[in-house]
Amino acid sequence: MTDRRVRSAWFLMPFALLAVACGGDDGGTEQLATTLPPTECVAGEFDAGRTVVITVDDVVGGFGGLGSRTPSDLAAGMVRVSVEADAENREPVSVAVTRDGVEVATVRGVAAGSVCAIDIELAAGHYVVVEGDRDVEFDVVAP
Q1: Helices then strands (H, E): number in the chain?
Q2: Helix, strand, or coil here: 51?
Q3: What is the pLDDT of residue 35?
Q4: Same-domain status, 91 and 27
Q5: Which residues pair with 83 in a beta bridge?
Q6: Which of 18, 47, 56, 143 maximizes the CB count within 10 A of its CB?
Q7: Which pTM was predicted?
Q8: Distance (Å, rounded) from C-alpha 26 to C-alpha 128?
Q9: Pick from 63, 67, 59: which is nearest to 95 by CA?
């Protein structure tokens, strides 16, 4: 009888360990999806003629919007994408830059009232910047 209890205990131990490993007081896995680190922003001078500026304003104060300023005839190559978050935004904002439906860059965690820029090599094509359910577009031409 004692031998049977020991075998049952060994059989149940992996399940007990799994329950402890998967349990916790954080409310589940939702936190994992929301804890991606903010993007490392670049600093320093960059050619304004090669900079795409994305402005993000949530709906605080009754207004909101997603806008972009893109140099005309932006040629393929190294481009700076600068995300400006409105000072009244409720929370940090994130945008994704896509081409042909494929994400080519993401800028995450831009705090209200701040700017975060990345430098990225872009090929010629049509790009869409997405923030939530809003988007803006810009084109990059062949050099």
Answers
A1: 2, 8
A2: strand
A3: 63
A4: no
A5: 54, 116
A6: 56
A7: 0.73
A8: 35
A9: 67
Confidence of residue 25 (pLDDT cuts 50, 70, 90): very low
Whose tokens are 């207004």? That residue is 63
- Percent of the chain scored above 70 by pLDDT? 73
Q: What is the pLDDT of residue 63?
A: 72
- Distance separating alpha carbons of residues 111 and 85, to the nearest angstrom: 7
Residues 56-63: contacts with CB within 8 Å, 24+ apart?
Answer: 56/83, 56/84, 56/85, 56/86, 56/89, 56/93, 56/95, 56/110, 56/131, 57/86, 57/88, 57/89, 58/86, 58/88, 58/89, 58/90, 58/91, 58/93, 60/86, 60/88, 60/89, 60/90, 61/88
128 and 93 inside one domain:
yes
